[in-house]
Amino acid sequence: MGSLPSEVFSPLDTNIYSKESHAMVDFIADYYRHIEQYPVRSQVKPGYLSKILPDTPPIFSEPIDTILEDVKKDIIPGLTHWQSPNFYAYFQANASTAGFLGEMLCSGFNVVGFSWISSPAATELESIVMDWMAKMMKLPSMFLFSGGQGGGGVLHGSTCEAVVCTLAAARDKALSKIGHDSITKLVVYASDQTHFTVQKASKIIGIPTSNFRALPTCSSSYYALTADTVRKAMESDMAQGLVPLYLCATVGTTAVGAVDPLFELGQLAQEFDVWLHVDSAYAGSSAICPEFRNYFDGVELADSISMNPHKWFLTNMDCCCLWIKNPYLLVDSLSTNPEILRNKASDAKVVVDYKDWQVTLSRRFRAIKLWLVIRRYGVANLMEHIRSDVALAEHFERMVNMDDRFEVVVPRKFSLVCFRLKPKFEACEEANNYSKLNRELLEDINNSGRAFMTHAVVSSTFVIRFAIGTTLTKKTHVEETWKLIQSKATDLLNRKYTK
Ligand code: PLP
């Protein structure tokens, strides 16, 4: 309940701010020191927290020490430890000291740079840092502010937002030509591997759900979308009076890391006058290394590209880079000009007002975080960060290949390995039911608390995804986790098949 106030209520007292912030930093450092002691995937049961927390808020203030004790006691057990070195699930959301310090600055200044005048440094730093990122990824100059061709970039919180905004721009461009009543004719194309965010975004911007095409991929193209498949779908839709609108290509799909062929899809998009968006939420960071840049060949034919530094670029949540060749299309679609926000710089159209490049008005000063990460680590270390994760994934893939009970189902892409217990294992009575067996294996691994992985299903095959990218993961963690997987497999097979 807290106790009667003994101090004056002063929520931004600088002495308290400094003292309690230091306590918080020490608390977090301590969390990282002990992170390997916690079960990686939380082992709590649904509803655990409401059983232990009071159901009404405190009337009077409570000391920070008491609150942090409760965080330790009540909250940490319910965390899945995304920063654990043994976290291999989903795609990582990697953290770093610089990312954390950048978040502190962002949150510490707490400015809201929706228009240039509302915080000029926030806007200008964002434009500069977006050009820096684009240069690191060797994006074509038409995506850069400094490219002089009208392009530029913006920081969003997530790929979902970036896709909604680019879809809205594409929709309004198309409807201005064919009339607003024609929205039911517009069709969005993606593959059956594309992140569900594109389908959700299509729905949000008013595309009929029946006009979303999740085009099939197969193992022979390593789950990449082929231009031939897209061409057939577009021609068939046009024959029925529909209008192809938007194609999403992915570099590094969520399930298996597949890479869609940007050049071929780009040529097709131009032929059919379709907006091409490249989603490289996870793998975009790899473009800073020359040896991975070839996956992005053809990006010059895209209208927009996005990637998430909060996945693999040591930038704490949240941070998504979106570049667009013709930002005026985004602004046409998303701008508002209420009297209350009018100012000389905006009226003179000599500045970027990022409120017109996104869904919301208010926005965080994410640029300072990304800027801090790039400056603090430098391009050389950032490249090394990507390369060392890829090398660990190669090492893991080799270990899987050396145990003939297992197989790598889809060849490693970037730092993602998809594997399973393989069907031809002789002792198995459930030869046709390997999905069930692998599902059980995954449950056993995750229930151990010693590592956390997730799964995907491709061509009706259940695969265990081993996604490397958490900042603290080292070779020893990968090797120990592989031993864990092997021993859980041995236990499972003994349990099932030994009489
Ligand atoms: N696209 C891909 C390829 C992803 O892997 C993910 C998430 O893992 C997303 C989009 C969604 O990203 P966000 O959570 O930033 O919206």
TrEMBL record:
Record InterPro entries: Aromatic_deC, PyrdxlP-dep_de-COase, PyrdxlP-dep_Trfase, PyrdxlP-dep_Trfase_major, PyrdxlP-dep_Trfase_small, Pyridoxal-P_BS
Family: Belongs to the group II decarboxylase family.
One Pfam family linked to the record: Pyridoxal_deC
Lineage: Eukaryota, Viridiplantae, Streptophyta, Embryophyta, Tracheophyta
UniProt-listed GO biological process terms: amino acid metabolic process; carboxylic acid metabolic process; phenol-containing compound biosynthetic process; primary amino compound biosynthetic process
Residue positions where N6-(pyridoxal phosphate)lysine is found in the record: 311
Organism: Dioscorea cayennensis subsp. rotundata (White Guinea yam)
Full protein name: Tyrosine decarboxylase 1-like
Names of the cofactor(s): pyridoxal 5'-phosphate
GO cellular component terms, A-Z: cytoplasm
Gene Ontology molecular functions: carboxy-lyase activity; pyridoxal phosphate binding
Keywords: Decarboxylase, Lyase, Pyridoxal phosphate
Gene3D superfamilies in the cross-refs: Aspartate Aminotransferase, domain 1, dopa decarboxylase, N-terminal domain, Type I PLP-dependent aspartate aminotransferase-like (Major domain)
